[in-house]
Amino acid sequence: MKKIVVLHSDISPEATQDELDCLIQAQTIATALKELNFQPVLVPFSLDIRQTIAKLNAFKPFAVFNLVETVASSGRLIYFAPAVLDLLKIPYTGCPTEAVLQTSNKPLAKRILQGFGIATPDWLEQDGTEYRRQKAKRYLIKSAWEHASIGLDEKSLIEYQSKEFVLQAMKRREKRLGGSCFAEAYIEGREFNVALIARKAGVLVLPIAEMLFHDYAPDRLRIVDYKAKWDAASFEYNNTIRNFDFGAKDRSLIDRLREIALLCWKIFSLKGYARVDFRVDKKNRPWVLEINTNPCLSPDAGFAAALNQAKIKYTEAIGLILADAVNRF
Which of 95, 182, 265, 319 is the most exposed place for a label (fewest CB within 10 A)? Predict the structure, then answer.
């Protein structure tokens, strides 16, 4: 029986809910791999690279299912895992090192998107570099490296009074955002997630999901913040609903989201599986927020929901992702 290492983040005793979710993914995928007649072995990716390499060499896996989202609880080190696997020449699932690095740094990804003519909201970086063409009145302060909506809440939205005012606001929030952040123009409108998965016949765009904000007061911020993702007792978690049903009036928009997501797949050389997140403004214009090269594969997360809509069984999807990795190497 071929051995598959399920490589996951090394979770600390002080881990938050978003980090602990990585273990849920690892255990769920291990179950799926058993159903596919593989022998899964769960291995944490330690910042002690020599120790991690020694473990990988000892197991001699047929392939690695890469689930590493943080290293030493830091999202900015996410690319260490594929880089090490490249060094060892072990086949691994998901996106290659370069794609992970380019997309994990959100301002860098936005520069690349802008260079290819793909609309992404204006932004301001901590070094003062400013991309401001639309003259937006409100900005969201977001982590430059961390995913899972780390540090994102209703206080993240600020009024643009001046460049200096925004820089000061970023400085005040940088610690809770992983030490590095940026300010992004807030797009008033709708939010969509587009999941993609590789197959032998080519990449497949899964059914597109819109995040609906039910019973939100008119003045309440409509974003998928940290509470909406991770705090099961919160209003945000229980009132942010995923919708896959669209009428004829949305047909052209859905087609456009699909087209842009496929273009992002090509631009960043994405592999295996990924997700592209959008906001759509009141004029029906899509804006790419970010590209996630390691979207959550927990059974209750958005990717699994899109698979269900596509009538692709979870175990089948894990098989497709693994097959793509083996074929590439």
Answer: 319
Q: What is the largest CA-CA distance in the chain?
A: 62
HSE-CB for 2 with a 13 A CA cutoff: 13
Angle (nearest 5°) at CA 114 between 110 and 116: 120
DSSP state of 206: P
Handedness of CA 178, 182, 188, 191 (dihedral sign): negative
What are the pLDDT digits (tens) for 82-139?
999 999 999 999 999 999 999 999 999 999 999 999 999 999 999 999 998 888 999 9
Rounded Cα distance, 226 and 92, in Å: 29
pTM confidence score:
0.94
Asked if 65 and 297 touch (Cβ cutoff 8 Å), the reply is no
**Element (H or E) spanning 40, and its range?**
strand 39-45
The sheet with strand 123-125 has its strands ordered as 130-131, 123-125, 181-185, 138-143, 157-159
The residues pairing with 66 across neighbouring beta strands, listed in sequence order, are 7
Kindly state the helix (H) or strand (E) to which residue 318 belongs, with its residue range: helix 314-328
Distance CA 195, CA 197 (A): 7
State the Cα–Cα distance between residues 158 and 259, nearest whole angstrom: 32
Q: What CATH number matches the domain at 189-208+244-328, 2.60.40.10, 1.10.10.10, 3.30.470.20, 3.30.70.360?
A: 3.30.470.20
C-alpha 150/C-alpha 91 separation (Å) is: 30
CA distance 49 to 83: 11
For 49, residues 6+ apart whose C-beta sits below 8 A from its C-beta are 80, 84
pLDDT recorded at residue 110: 98
List, in sequence order, the alpha helices (H) in 138-250. Answer: 163-173, 226-230, 235-239
In the chain, which residues fall in CATH 3.30.470.20?
A: 189-208+244-328
Provide the pairing of β-strand 273-281 with 189-199. Answer: antiparallel
